[in-house]
Amino acid sequence: MSKTPSQNESREMLIWLNQNRQMLLDLYKNQYVAYNANGLIAHSENLREVLDLAEASV
Length: 58
Fold this sequence. Notes:
It is built from 2 helices and 2 strands. By secondary structure, it is an alpha+beta fold. It has one domain (7-56). The protein is flat, with a radius of gyration of 11 Å.
């Protein structure tokens, strides 16, 4: 991603990840995921696809 998250955004993203870790492992096993403090942005077995979707969401 071209935008570096602020310290507060990074903290919010980590909180979201910790709260949703098991759900991500259950639903998206063997997939790449992109997320932010608001939730899941993209998921796929194709890393390039996930990166492109994450970049487009900024």
